[in-house]
Amino acid sequence: MPRFNPITDIPDLTGRVALVTGANAGLGYQTVLQLANHGAKVYLTTRSEAKARDTIARLEEANPALKGSGRLQSLLLDLSLVTKAKAAAEEFLRREERLDILINNAHLPATDFEVTAEGLSTIFATDHVSPFVFTSTLLPLMEATAKLPGADVRIITLSSDMQSTALATTKFDSVEDFRDKCGPDDKANGYSAKFARYAQAKTANILFAKELQRRLDEAGVPILSISLHPGGAATEGFENVLRKMGFGLLWPLASWILMSPLQGVATPLFAATSPEVRRDEEKYKGQYLVPYGKVGKPGPVASRPEMPGQLWELTEKAVKEILESGKV
Questions:
Q1: Catalytic positions, written as ranges
Q2: What are the domain boundaries of the chain?
Q3: Quick check: pTM over 0.90?
Q4: Which UniProt keywords apply (predicted)?
Q5: Which CATH superfamily is 13-230+265-325 part of?
Q6: Which neighbouring-strand residues pair with 233?
């Protein structure tokens, strides 16, 4: 078990409000369970009411004490479109007066190349641009929460060690880069291009968290922004990826080698709740963590000093165009 055990080491979160995206399965589900078990009121996001009901039912079965406690709440969120991500965040603002912990967990894995109705590659929209909008829309509430007595507000963005494989040619100079196929047209749906696009999106997660922290520090806002690689865990999502790649027969072996889901959430929950992170915030804020809660070194692209600011400014430009005209 990691040095941070979510079952025993998460502090009492009574009175705190948390929001976890992509929470109907895998690490998101386990993250919600542990936060709620320790007293937090947790909003779990799903893409449908049916999934929300099913997820809450499974959480209440895992811990019957949660039933009727009010600690489990749902929020519909579709990250494939910027406009829907903003609308979901605005719905949350209508429902809550504080937000202490935001965990950007939802993501789209390596997949075929598609462009959304808003003009972005589906994976880059889902994994970076929409979480950027979702977080930015919620940020004023989190800033207000940070002013409350005893507050400890944190924004956690899950990345992946796949970010280290981002193509050296990765750049964020124009909105065209947000629909980069990462390969020639006739190979856009090959494994190399699929995983290159995923690595690009996961690199963006690190850059976003880093630039967000810089801006918070500049404004004197005591919110912590941290990105991380949770580690390879035996989740439903990982199994689905293996099966789609034609390697389903490897799942029994992979599930034996990989972390359990509980181990997989140790680093995200360490970042989101551990008193150590706040006590030693200069060590952790804006950093990229790896299992279990250690400060890691991002890959070459994510380490370029000019990239966080470039990506932030370009994302703002793309979002502005989408919200004003519906497309970039």
A1: 198
A2: 13-230+265-325, 231-264
A3: yes
A4: Oxidoreductase
A5: NAD(P)-binding Rossmann-like Domain (3.40.50.720)
A6: 259
